[in-house]
Design a protein that fits this description.
Blueprint: E1 29-31, E2 34-36, E3 42-44, E4 50-56, E5 61-67, E6 74-80, E7 83-90, E8 96-99, E9 108-115, E10 123-129, E11 132-134, E12 143-148, H1 150-153, H2 177-185, E13 188-193, H3 213-216, E14 239-243, H4 263-280, E15 285-289, H5 296-312, E16 323-325, H6 341-360
Parallel strand pairs: 12-13, 12-14, 14-15, 15-16
Antiparallel strand pairs: 1-4, 2-3, 3-10, 4-9, 4-11, 5-8, 5-10, 6-7, 6-9
Helix pairs in contact: 2-6, 4-5
Length: about 350
């Protein structure tokens, strides 16, 4: 798991209001961590953030651009009329137009454009479409936010050859466990996840050179870049799922300084992080999870830490009792020791009934 520190430069005039909730226009819906710009353009930031729209006819061209401080390609996944039709590679440089192949004779079509790569791997500008747009409205659904690391990002999950390409080539946020289970149980979701990140330290950094999740969460772009907008907390999830600890418990690369795991620091940071979440989402049900990648003695310590976090809020009468969910141990089949797309589906199938039950409880 690698944490990439990227400062993003976007040369577009920003509107004065930034929102991560769905668009109020009648032609586009925006979901996830996004930044809306002028003229219905939007920067897709977080994993599986998306723009969707309805259109008529058999012609649809979309314009996309990778917008990063260093130039590299990016990816989106496309879903047309409810059917996944594949990934688009967006090369570095100027905005590019992509034709969408229409095969059905339906009068009206629905297109969803999902960002495959995570915030730290670069952002994608949706610069518009030539399609003949029709109105679109958002169905009122319950909401879940997924906070996590590369496992939550579905990093290194989508590849037949892990030795080929670059890190962003192996991402597919559309198939991340949070996105998959949300579609299965019919909820809206938001992903706030960063590869390599932890609660008090990262995969290969003792919080000396790299930011941890409590440092970046309140920045819309999940960085410490003060020039970027703050996250506005407009999403207001019914459930907030937190899966952080895999990197805190990791041994790093074996070359850089790695201190023994500090349970006290981990628990303290976790408690303070939840207090911040409660401040902005007072009605949310919080679920904290273990990791299918942390096993043996470390898993025992991990579970003890989660129990301490839960118990710290046991007397809190203002909020719902914190829940703990335990993923089953897993031998991942993806790249760099990560779950692959099939593993992500296994995690989704494990977690979905638990979250669905919580959502239906009064």
């Amino acid at each position: 798991m690698f944490l990439k520190k990227i400062a993003f430069l976007i040369s577009f005039l920003l509107v004065s209001i930034v929102s991560t909730s769905q668009s109020k226009t009648n032609t586009f819906l925006y979901e996830g961590r996004v930044e809306k710009l002028q003229n219905n353009t939007v920067v897709l930031i977080g994993t599986a953030s998306l723009v969707s729209f309805n259109f008529t006819g058999n012609e649809c061209l979309i314009t996309l651009q990778s917008v990063n401080s260093y130039e590299h390609h990016n990816y989106v996944s496309l879903v047309l009329d409810g059917k996944y039709i594949g990934k688009i590679r967006i090369e570095k440089g100027a905005a590019q137009s992509f034709p969408i192949k229409i095969t059905s004779n339906k009068k009206e079509h629905h297109l969803e454009i999902y960002k495959n790569t995570e915030a730290q791997s670069g952002n994608i500008l949706f610069a518009g479409t030539t399609a003949k747009l029709t109105s679109i409205s958002a169905k009122k659904k319950k909401k879940i936010e997924f906070i996590g690391d590369s496992i939550t990002c579905a990093a290194a999950s989508d590849s037949v050859d892990c030795d080929s390409g670059e890190y962003m080539d192996h991402h597919n946020g559309y198939y991340a466990y949070g996105a998959v289970l949300s579609r299965e149980i019919g909820v809206d979701y938001l992903m706030s996840s960063v590869s390599g990140i932890g609660m008090y330290r990262n995969w290969n950094d003792e919080n000396k050179d790299e930011a941890i999740m409590p440092d970046v969460y309140q920045n819309l772009y999940l960085t410490k870049d003060a020039s970027k907008p703050k996250y506005d907390f407009a999403f207001q999830p019914n459930i907030i799922s937190i899966a952080l600890g895999t990197n805190d418990f990791s041994g790093g690369d074996g070359k850089k300084e790695r201190l023994p795991f500090n349970a006290e620091k981990y628990v303290s940071n976790y408690i303070n992080f939840i207090k911040m979440l409660y401040k902005h989402n007072p009605k949310a049900q919080i679920v904290i999870t273990n990791s299918p990648m942390v096993n043996g003695e470390k898993a025992v310590v991990f579970e003890d830490c989660l129990n301490k976090v839960k118990n710290a809020f046991a007397e809190d009468k203002k909020h719902k009792t914190i829940q703990i969910f335990k993923f089953k141990p897993m031998t991942p089949k993806g790249c760099l020791g990560h779950p692959d797309v099939a593993d992500q589906k296994v995690m989704a199938d494990e977690y979905a009934p638990f979250l669905k039950k919580l959502l239906n409880e009064k």
